[in-house]
Amino acid sequence: MKRRDSYLTIGAVGLGAVLAYSYLTKKKNIYDLTGKIVLITGGSRGLGLNISRQLLRMGARVVICARDINELEGAVLELSGPGNKVMAIQCDTTDKLQVDKMITMIRDRWGSVDVLINNAGIIQVGPFENMTTADFENAMKTHFWAPLYTTIAVLEDMKNKNNGRIVNISSIGGKVAIPHLLPYTASKFALNGLSQGLRSELKKHNIIVTTISPGLMRTGSIHNITLKGQHKKEYAGFSILSAMPLLTVSASHAAARIIKAVQFGEASVTISLPAKSIGLFL
């Protein structure tokens, strides 16, 4: 009996040592965001604004960009505070020339971007028969080409530093096709492929790429969707789903999980229980 107890004690001590080593190793490898220059596309509202708010609390220098200057000005007012360093730039990230100009502005004022978070997005809701090729082109411009443009724009500086973080906010719709969201889901599939491939190719430069796949979030996006087909029916269905606590996750919770993924250099993260449930079967 005493011998078994001693074995149990030794085993417990050994397990404790392993856990302690694992914790210390992870803590040592946490990416410190203090003073880092973080660019967040679509940072003027919703998830992007929540990410900005939390990063500022951690001492990061935050650059937000969006197309709407009024939203940007409102976001800056909200984010400004003692010690907070915020820069806002009006930019349509689907335009490569505007993206290149923005990166030059950031470099001239603060320095090179350390962390890029590709968050800007659009949602078109409706049946396929009511979608046009322009709807698919716009979704691809926003969810694939824009992240590609921003990535290319920051890549040389990151390679020169042999360090960087790139986060692509995709969707569970980039893993499984969602009816009535085909332009959105097709473009998110494309982003997933780009993001996963970049992670493999850029890790030799110590540039860590993370793919985030949220489910439905309570971000207020219901007010910014484009409806096709039976507008009232599509709006009602989407609004009910996006407001249900058991099916959705708050933007602040998602933001915290995304920042943790940046700190630990995770390859991919699925956010919200329904999204994780779907992910188990993929």
Briefly characterize the structure.
This protein is α/β, with parallel strands linked by helices. The chain has helices spanning 2-28, 46-57, 69-79, 96-109, 133-161, 182-202, 231-243, 251-264, 273-279; strands spanning 37-41, 61-66, 85-90, 115-118, 124-125, 164-169, 207-214, 216-218, 226-227, 248-250, 268-271.
Main beta sheet: 7 strands, parallel
Order of strands in the sheet with most strands = 3-2-1-4-6-7-11
SSE series: HEHEHEHEEHEHEEEHEHEH
**CATH homology superfamily:** NAD(P)-binding Rossmann-like Domain
Tally the helices: 9
- Radius of gyration, in angstroms, nearest whole number: 21 Å
Tally of domains = 1
Shape: globular
The total of beta strands comes to 11
Strand content: 15-25%
Proportion of helical residues: 40-55%
CATH class: Alpha Beta
Q: What is the CATH architecture assignment?
A: 3-Layer(aba) Sandwich
Structural description of this entry:
The chain is an alpha/beta fold and 282 residues long. The chain has a single domain, classed as 3-Layer(aba) Sandwich (Rossmann fold). The chain is 52% helix and 17% strand. It has nine helices and eleven strands. The strands form three sheets. A seven-stranded parallel beta sheet has the order 3-2-1-4-6-7-11, sandwiched between helices. A two-stranded parallel ribbon has the order 5-9. A two-stranded parallel sheet has the order 8-10. Helix 4 packs parallel to helix 5. It is globular, with a radius of gyration of 21 Å.
